[in-house]
Queue: 3 jobs
Job 1
Amino acid sequence: MEKATKQAALNAHSWVGVFLGILLFLVCLSGTLAVFHKEFERWEQPGIEEMEQVDPATVEKAMAAFRARHPEATEHEFVVFPTSGIPRLVVENDDVAYFADSDGNLIEKERSPFTKMLVDLHLYLNLPHSWGMILVSALGAIICTLVVTGIIAHKRIKKDAFTLRRGGNRQQYKIDLHNRFGLWAAPFHLMIGVTGTYFGMAGLIILLMSQLYFDGNRQAAVETVFTPEPELTQPVATPNLQKAVAQLETLAPDQPPIFITVHDVNSPAQLIEIYTQVPGKMIYSENYRFDTQGNFLGNAGYKDGHWGKQLIYSMYRLHFGDFAGIPGKLLYFVLGVMLTVLCVSGIDIWLAKKAFPPVLTRLWHATVWGSISALGLTALAGMVSDVSLVACFWGLMILNLVFAVALRGLSKPVWLAIAGASVLVLLISYSVLHTSDSLTLAALQVNIPLLVFVIWSCRKALKARDYQSFAAIQAQNSTP
């Protein structure tokens, strides 16, 4: 029975992975890169003035300048603080955003099309958000299924925990690498799967809660998790942001502000809400509420709330590694690479068992390495034009697949070289377009890793080409 259970788990693991391999790969790859979405935002506009903190008067001045430039009514206004993870001051409404300097003067319109496309790819696979989120969340559940079935199907977990056999036709090495990554990082992969599933299923969870405990009242169910906004009736006036921000020094001296949201702008219900980091807690923020005049009304209570409420309010930071600064992001990046490699090696193992069908193999290599070139060229398109980057990325992906079918010579080494060349073109173009700004910290923190990838991909392409040549000679010599 144990043998039958392991075989059933292996079959489920294989077929689920094969049928959803491409989608899982794209979600994992984009998620691994999206860990650094704040760094990518800075990279797209490297010349913006950066600062560590800003005083309340500057916040007020910047928002006043923004309102003078965009007096049109929107439901919300926002101020993003330099302590948010991006050391820049941003003022915006629902439609447009501007950076401000340390004196509160507006400078450049915020523009990060590639970062937005990348995050949208991870969260929704660039599909309409209503059902794109459901699909991606379902893939999160699939990741959990693959982790569990993979562990069940593993025949010698203890014995092979540190086995990594090299040599031969490299097939055993790929299997060992797949099993080791799947085993070592299983807790992380389960956490990513569970938190990813939550984002799309939150609506369903609220619906079930409302039916089970609140007689179908969804708003009541929401308010048990997310503290409702106070209902205000007051004279319509310009919100006093300076007074509200100044009070944080007393209310939360050790909690750096993330951003301000002004709700229900220019209405009697207008509310100022300041989101702050809470050191030592995994929750996204504690929220402090003020009326239009800047008078303190109370906080949302996430910091000291029920453990269940704190857990739900921690999902974002758990999923994206938005804690512990750069070391935490680097850890998530490494573990994300392991999850992405699991997707790739799983399909590679399956293709090997099918004796590497030529067309399917070329299509898979075009998907894996062609996605890197597509992302690099899409980022370049975002720097030089206002073209839709979603259309650009998927157009390049389709073009890669067409070339893979039409041109038999496009093997893995060629795709590796194309990926490296595409990123190199991106780097050269970036340096030309941004001149001296390409040497700022905002630029170098992304450009240096991209240059490392170029070097790695070129070396990997040469090694893959040499291995293919060796394998071909071996096969020729073994032919009677």
Note: The beta strands are 77-80, 89-93, 97-100, 106-109, 257-263, 271-276, 286-290, 296-299.
Job 2
Amino acid sequence: MLVFILNAGSSSLKYQLMNPVSKEVLATGLCERIGIDGVLKHEFTDGKKLTLDVSMPTHKEAIELVLKTLVEGEGKVINSIDNIDAVGHRAVHGGEEFASSVMVTPKVIETMKKLIPLAPLHNPANIMGMEICQDLMPGKPNVAVFDTAFHQTMPDYAYMYALPYDQYTKHGIRKYGFHGTSHFFVSNEARGMLDKKHNTRIIVCHLGNGSSVSAVLNGKCIDTSMGLTPVQGLMMGTRAGDVGAGAISYMMTQEGMTIDQTLDVMNKKSGILGISGKSSDLREVLQGMQDGDDRCRLAVEMVAYNIKKYVGAYVAALDGVDALCFTGGIGENSSLIREIVCAGLDGMGLNIDPTKNNKRSGKPRDIATNSSTARIFVIPTNEEYVIANDTYKIVSGLEK
């Protein structure tokens, strides 16, 4: 089976063509600057890349271009669109309505539209991608895979906010969590690496421009750091993470900002960028720290400290830990962040091996010392595979 995987954003879309049974990826790519001018970056499995500057007034033209590129010219990897068996869509917010991936139907789209207030930037683009694919590839099954679904196993005492209860019953205000496909994939890989499917206590640190931590007990999420929206939790590339409501109110008063302006600051001008004043890219900030920039040093130490706090909290929530996992661009590539996070966690059974930690590899690996009672894994995530595999199982009738 060939699955066309689509992740539609507000002005961009990522795609991949994959056989989920063999895990073979035929092509992957990105459309950027949709509605502005348009750039398609298409990549083959052998690393060969193709870049096309083509006008993309809307997402429809972008998806049309991607499908054409897959079957024609330099980007060709299949003979016909008919070779595509199904489409799997990344869907950001499923609220409480979707605890698993589902076949896209008019009712599903209608429900997702009702959830737009919870994800005003993401859900409209996700829905648009689904409707366009249904239009361009009539008869092809479409499956929605939700970022929030994996976290729907959290108990109520973990996901509720201590606000008046009617704010939950009337508006659905609670913690939902995100990066669910990554947390599911990595925790499942960790269970395999532990060779232990039962009684597993796993903490996953998905660290990138957006970051989150989850506590996974026996394959089920029991807590996660992101909340109603992705701005809660860890300090991220441009997101503030956990900030007291009083500090937000005080900043608004002192700066004379509206709520929209404040949210813009918290989502786009805070985090690593806001503290360092240099960049949202941790690589540049790490270099700045090495060059003696004290604000870069502060940003790096804050990032690591915030992660460590959540790790400690989740060891308590899980009543111990069998494996601590690092994934995402930062988690997989920054040995220094892993080192700082793990420093001092010996009492929790987490002992990092400096030599193993500093070795680079694109494969899953254990970087704990041989004597460590808990394992420390670096596991490359594969959210696209989760989307493709869920699509395959639902379309094939394997998932009821």
Note: The two ends are 19 Å apart (CA to CA).
Job 3
Amino acid sequence: MKWLSSICVLAATWAVGLVQAAEDTEMKSVPLRTHSLESPYLDSDMASRWWDFGGDTMIRADKYVRLAADQPSQSGWIFSRIPLTANNFEIEMEFSIAGKGNLHGDGFAMWITKERAQPGDVFGHTDRFEGLGVFFDTYKNNRPGVVFPYVMAMMGDGKTTYDRANDGKANELGGCSARGLRSSSVPSKAKLTYLKDESLSLDLQYKTEGTWTKCFDLKATDSMPLKLPNQAYLGFSAHTGELSDNFDIVKVETKNLYQPRASIPRTKDGKKLASSFERSSKKSGGGWLWFFFKIILFAGVCGGGYVGYNAYRTRQRYNRF
């Protein structure tokens, strides 16, 4: 009986160890203070150590960074002072779009671009940019069948102009309609996740607090490489025309994403090598489902052996009498 109990204990320990190893391979994160922003936004000398701002941007230390006010012909920006060098990152921002009028425009944008603090006519930023622009467009120019506000991403090559006449239709990598994003009853948030040269996704919160809606989830291909400049700055800008709104940034949290190096076996040339467990899973074709099935099966064998052993001892006891 002792040997059976020992095997069961070893099996349980082995299973727990594998589960912990699997958890260690999950993506970890480290906050990047240099690219995060929160109240009071400014230092004691009324400046920011990590950010520059200009144009019509106003800062109310207890509430927001207002990129553009609810007035015609406003344009403002705020940009990080140092480049965002993380290969993989997540940027979560809280923002607000609201105004007095029933008609409103134009919109604001998040930038991860080679250009830094260069005002222009693309939501307050220069055109022909190199890098990523995520546009929160609140005014419909000419895009039939699309509900506004509309959120979309564009990867600029430094030469291509933004398709302003058609609300960026020719430039869109991915996007979604977000009815209710303006004057939302819950804190409006956007979460951008980028894995170097692999994927780009955007999630929005504006319907229910704590509930995220997927806007787009892109995977890199030969025809659609998701490559950012080696030196890119994080920024935000907004623009109003004849129609206007208040475009406010409330909070920005940027995180560097990484996998623990100990959990990523590599070859001599630095390439990722599948673990023995991953290789055996692929060969068996079962993955995690098959792995847990085997654990349950082994536990069943242990349990069956224990029950059988007790039944055998009971039978022997009765046979003596």
Note: The first strand starts at residue 28 and ends at 31.
